[in-house]
Each structure stands twice: as structure tokens, then as C-alpha cells.
């Protein structure tokens, strides 16, 4: 039997701690150094475990802010949608429709209910997206996926509707897969930032209907590009993607 990699051991333990509520939504995880000391290892396997958690939409890592849990423990599962999810056109389409319904309403309510602190967080998430674009173009290490997830999560939080927040928490793997597919294979990053800017400005202006419309159009564009790309190349994981 193959020996389990240390990063996998750390990953499973962190997922268990999040699942049981030891680390809760919006709580910051210990630093890489602290986790390395806890698991009596170097920071390399810790960093890999945190990267996998971020890719799954469970945590968000940003420079200067550390790593924060962004999905509630009660909604975690050991089963990711993975490749079958990417290849199932019906499931892919149904889940993006679900996200449109949830997140468009979240944007509308965020415009109506947002506080000054909410606007600051949305602005920081938007600026982070722009900064990650710059790093991407310069071929530097970047965290654009995390920045994108942060922005969408901040909108739900700004709605001050806990049910909407819980709905997004309940589908972390769906959201993560959409972000991975749309950003890696179809949607230009500059276009994503443009949509995010429109959504942010409408929320800032407290224009609920325009915020709803801009979020709806953003996710409809994601759906259209993913579906078109899948029809063209017969899948979403080929080398023809951008």
C-alpha cells in the first residue's frame, strides 16, 4: 500500500477540523509556520495542503491577511465534483443556473443593505483581483482564483441575508469548479474584472436592480463561454482552452 503524502495527511486533518467546527467560517487559520510546527514538518507540505483547500473553495489565502475559512464546516464533503462534474453538461448548466439565482439576488440585497465596512471589503477584493491580473500578465505567482472567490463571497456577506450566505457555503465545490473552468479555459481575466467593477459600482450606488442585472449577466456570460467551449473541443480540460 502506498504511503500517504504528508501534505495529504495535513489536508485531511484541516478538513476534519473545519468540518467539526474547530475552525469556523470567517476564522483565520494558523500561519504556515505555526502549522508546520504543529505538524512537525517544513512549510512545504503545509503550503500544498492550504493550496488544495483554496482550490476547493474551502479557504481563501491573501497576502497580508493569511488564510481564512470561507465555507462552513457543516457543508464540507470529502467528495469533490472533479472530472465527472466537468464532463457532465447537464449538471454544469444546472449548477451555473443555481448560482445565477442565488448570487444575483445576493447582489441586489447587497446594494440595499451594504454597510461602509462591506464596501471596504468589496473594494479590497476588487483591487486584489486587479493586482492578481497584473501578476498574471507578468507571469508571476498569483492568486486570481482566490481573489475571484473573495469578491463573490463578500457580496453574499454584504447582503446581510444569512440564508443566501449559507446557500453559497453549501456549494463550495460547485463554485470552485465554475471558477476553475471559466477562468482557466474560457473567460478572459480582464473581462471578469470588468464585470466585477460593474457589480461593485452598482452596489456602491445602492442600485439593487442594476446590481442584480450585472451579476446575472456576469454568470450568464460564464455559462455561455463554458458551454460553447465544451461543444467546440468536446470537453473542458483540453489544451485548446485558454
UniProtKB/TrEMBL annotation:
The keyword Transcription applies. Residues 4-72 form the HTH gntR-type domain. Pfam families: FCD, GntR. Keywords: DNA-binding, Transcription, Transcription regulation. The keyword Magnesium does not apply. PROSITE patterns: HTH_GNTR. InterPro entries: GntR_C (IPR011711), TF_FadR/GntR_C (IPR008920), Tscrpt_reg_HTH_GntR (IPR000524), WH-like_DNA-bd_sf (IPR036388), WH_DNA-bd_sf (IPR036390). GO terms for molecular function: DNA binding; DNA-binding transcription factor activity. The lineage of its organism: Bacteria, Bacillati, Bacillota, Clostridia, Lachnospirales. This is HTH gntR-type domain-containing protein. It comes from the Bacteria.
